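pasting for ref. prot 1 ->
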Amino acid sequence: MRRVHRWIYIVVGAYTFFTILLWRAENGGHIYAPIEPTDHVKSLQEIEAKPAIHVQKVTIVTSKSPKTQTQGARGDKCPGLDPPTNVLRDSWQSANGNRVYVYSAYFEPSRNHVVVIGARDKLSGPALWCQLWGEDGGLQVTRAAHRDMPEGKGKRYTCAFYTCPVPAGLHPTAVSLMTSECGKPTSSVFVHGAEGDNGNFTVCVTPLNFNYSKAYELVEMIELNKILGASHFVFYSYSINKNVQKVLEYYKDKGVEVVPWNLPMNVDTWPKKNIQVEIHYFGQLGALNDCLYRNRYKSPYVVFQDLDEFIIPRKVSNWNEMFQTLPKNKGSYMFRNTFFRKDWPDTDQNFTEKLDAQKYKMITILKQSRESKIFPRKHRSKYIVVPKNIDALGIHSVNRFRAGGEQFVEPDVALMHHYRDWENPTDKQPRSNDNRIMAYKEKLVNNVKNTWEKLKGVPLGPLPFS
């Protein structure tokens, strides 16, 4: 009997304890939201909307039925809170000391939430609140849910998503992440809308770094992708040299978008310095996912590849024609990788444009020997996605789908040419001669030549590292 009584006391005590916690949470108590569950439990679109606060009239917005309270409850905390005066667009800024940084934000009306791209210290402490500022200066406050991107690599910081539920009727133009509902915002991020049209194929490239100065590589990359079907490019700039800066300025009104990537933490350096690197490879996964959300409603297809990678159709001339032959309603189309070796000799084939190809260091035309090996699926692969069907990206494959799933494209349909210098020209790796790129040589060499004639005085690079 005593044991039964003991269990009754435990159950009643637990019920009382959690009832008090719930009451405090509903009446402004300092109970932090839990960290978002793991990927296999909950996705971004499944996050339940948390209570929201309006400055003048307190509207508690939940996933169930909305109800209105008069001044005197949580609204007492926010009446004097002014909208932020320094709203930054696409710039890293602190949201919680040096523990959480935010970069960009995107409003998705169909899902009634704002997705914030940021980075956090893995010991970042309490959960955050979203102060959502509307066009009229009105404020709503909701709980932020976060999910890390899958590439921490043991570093102090990892890139992360912060998702802010948006109450009905609000069109947010700025968002601040705070540790308390009504704290004065120390930073504020411009919220991108769904407006814009970048054409059929937008190409996203990982951050340019190490004072990047291979202008010849950049011009060739842009011109070849334009022939393949690219209509828009997004480059993230962490560290570039003056010659590359001039090339990007030249292309500014020709479909090239340059986004500053001013990471606030310690990154890789060259030459290497005795510092602790705090984030993996310039936060590349943050940049790729930012590019996904940046172009979700602006292009039907988004291409993810590096400067030395090219998705080359084998049976047709361009991506538009290739996609006419591929299954519809997929989320991503994955292309297998093979290495074209820059440390192997140039082609011995003679052709009219060869001197110009040599003059402008056109690697894709000159290097036509590749390794016989074609890597398996998801090993060094790259992909083209239907952005509306994707929730989150990894480096070599999609991390989370909203719809569609993966389509693995066979190598006889298209192959990802990866131009790499292994600094081992005499190795015994089996070789294959692959001259598929010659189908584009005349147009590609002429376009590159014409571009450099308009960039007279700009060094091709690479330049001495400084």
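and prot 2 ->
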Amino acid sequence: VMSINDGKCEADVVMKRFIDIIKTKDTSRFRSTVGMLGPACSDTVEPIAGVSKHFRTVVISYSAEGSISSDNSNDYPYFFRTIAENKQYKHAYIATLQALGWSKVAALTQDGQKYSDYMS
């Protein structure tokens, strides 16, 4: 059975959905859960990935590029992503900007830490 929940890219909503899955009255439902696909937003991944190790629940994010780095993967043994983390693109960005001869670049971002890895 697949359960679909909308986390709305808000950490508290995503955590509530995770808790709802764990605290279900049908205990066989959680025991039969093999993992979670998502959350999609970088700002909501870290809390779920951190908690998932205590429940041995795999978390696979399909679009969260930031927040959790491969440098601290031991802290998140059940977290996997299908997209590269932001910092892996920095060499491509630098090469592209140099090839274009650009010496100044402005970065516009939304609130949160989703794009913080671009600012180094």
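The helical segments are 11-22, 27-31, 42-55, 90-100.
The radius of gyration is 17 Å.
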